[in-house]
Please model this.
Amino acid sequence: MIFSLTILAFIFIVGLVIGSFLNVVILRTVSEESIVFPASKCPKCNTPLKWYHNIPVLSYLFLRGKCAFCKEHISLQYPIVELLTGLVFVGLFFRFCNPIDPLFGLSSMNPIGWGQLVIYIFALIVSCLFIVIAGTDIIEKKVADTHTYSLIGIGILYSVIMSILNFVLYSKANGMPKIDLHFFLTCPILYSLAAALLGYLIMEAISRLGLVLVGTRAFGEGDSYIAAGLGAVFGALLGCSGLYENFLPIFKALVAIIVLSGIIQLIITFPLFVKKLFINKNWLTLGALLVFIIYTIGFVFAQYNGWLNNTIAYWSSTVVLVILGLLTCRELICGLKENTANGLYLPFGPAMIIAGFIALNTLLF
Model:
């Protein structure tokens, strides 16, 4: 038990340190500074910080949330991101490495295979990019291309590495596989690329619907690239798993992630829109919105429980979902300009990142 707790504590501390670095990446992306130079400094008085001012979480507590030099308040973002990253590192260790039993009853760690270790490291890199993307979007309400391109690239790179490893291991055990059309069509690299393209096209289609209805995009271009990154990542993870022999389950998973992010966004922004609908006494739109939310939750629940495995059931349910969405979409999109002007607009990227975290911890790979 002591050994297990020591390992978990080490992983948590590493996560805290990485979280401190992610804070630098987020803030310097916003300020367009280098993440390497200059050294850490107070964002208010620009005084270089001592090493003991940069101890994750502890420095914030010891300094009582104030700069040691100018005494200005330090943003809560710092300890929140550090703690979140530490918890993510530990949570993903449990998720992918299965190290110990729930009661810490083992005297030593369970053996961890190289496959578990590879997917764990990949999940950590993806999670760090998730945190940076969400943090930048919340602070600046924009998404940096560098981060989304990195998310897409790491997903495709993972599929390439795992495809090569699996090919080598299979060849050694069973001889050279038959190279035919089926071999290429079931290649994880193709799955990752196809899912990235599909995620981008789905979000672009939804976003451009705003141009048709009210003359403004429903979401920023960065959100489309986030969807492409999610597609590349989960296309790679699912494509490299032996549980998926064709692209349809991966397509369903990607649609479920995007739908889930829509639900999360609605939950976050729902009070703002409901207030607007009540003020305008728009009962029809309010009713349609409620029906859409209830049906969407039911759709995701049915998808998760495998009730929509039948092709006809899945596509008919998806069509109904789209129709219900269109009935309420105009009112929601019309509110974008007004909410932006009033400072009430909330970026969609964080909702997609939360959905990505949920998928990372619930989907089978």
Notes: The longest helix spans residues 248-280. DSSP finds twelve helices and no strands in the chain. Residues 339-345 have pLDDT under 50 and may be disordered. Residues 27 and 135 are 9 Å apart (CA to CA).
